[in-house]
Specification:
The structure is a homodimer of 149-residue chains.
Chain A (H helix, E strand, L loop, with lengths): L2 H4 L8 H25 L5 H13 L6 H7 L7 H10 L3 E5 L7 E5 L1 H17 L8 H15 L1
Antiparallel strand pairs in A: 1-2
Chain A binds a DNA duplex (30 and 30 nucleotides) through helix 5.
Chain lengths: 149, 149
DNA sequence: TTTACATATTTGTTTTAACAATAGTTGTTC
DNA sequence: GAACAACTATTGTTAAAACAAATATGTAAA
């Protein structure tokens, strides 16, 4: 559905404004989809993203700063986010021996297992992305890269 | 900057995954920019969006449902969001006479004035969007529309 | 060594979001 | 017109985000 029907707004001030709102809206649309999937597993989208970052680094640990830099939403409160994941035994945390200011964070087997269960579900849900061809998907990414450049 | 540098992720599973993460990331990037602008005025992005919806409808009131439908993030808690705006006298609220289940919400002059002050600032901040040509911006919007279709 | 500065994380506090359940109003059907 | 379902908004509760400030560690210069 075109963006002006989705949010019942016919008159955008410019193509640029329409584009920006379209990006924000589409992003929120994805988040709704993803949040619904993760609700069963009692995970938030943010927690899921952090777990994927940790899996990407595994078996090397990440520091809090590493995680913050790689996160989609940089504003998150990493300390308490990790603490919640630690309480559910999805990650471990210990002070980095080389630099005691830092904290080494590792995904646990339980965390890896959880992601493993979610992989096929996420895969299935991303079928909707195939409304675009591979070429169009590449083109969209390129335009976004250019926009932020 | 290209998305794989931004989040230090070289290997995406597919162009589709890269595209999705790029949309989420770019959206968050916009939100960071916009939130910084609005902080001076003690407004959240969500509040700002609601005020713009109400301005679009003014002088006709919106119901809570109208607002929810037109919002970018549909998950918001409209009741308490409006209550906060009412406390700062940016909107008024009264039970709809025709259907007492509904609530008529109107932006106040103070609210209109606040938006008026923010217009040029938002305009200036959206200069960055002009990294893309008008044609490219249109193209990006179309691709997003097609994606959600 | 002391001082000053930079780095990395943590903590405190307030605000907002998320989710579930409830209440009041209206429309519909028998 | 009574019973029941549907609609709209509110409330309660818990979790998470936002923002500011503090703590602890490390680095480097005087």
């Amino acid at each position: 559905m075109s963006i002006h029907k989705d949010i019942q707004q016919e008159n955008f001030k410019s193509v640029y404004q329409k584009m920006m709102i379209n990006i924000l809206y589409t992003s929120s649309w994805f988040e709704d989809n993803n949040a619904a999937i993760m609700r069963d597993k009692k995970l938030s989208i943010t927690q899921f993203n952090v777990l994927r970052i940790l899996r990407g680094s595994h078996p090397k640990p990440c520091t809090g700063q590493d995680i913050q830099e790689r996160m989609i939403n940089k504003r998150s409160d990493v300390t308490r986010l990790i603490e919640r994941l630690r309480k559910t035994e999805l990650v471990t945390r210990e002070v980095c021996p080389e630099n005691r200011r830092k904290v080494d964070i590792l995904i646990t087997n339980k965390g890896l297992q959880l992601l493993h269960e979610l992989d096929p579900v996420m895969e299935a849900s991303s079928e909707v992305l195939k409304k675009l061809s591979e070429e169009e998907a590449e083109q969209l990414s390129s335009l976004l890269d250019k926009l932020r450049s």
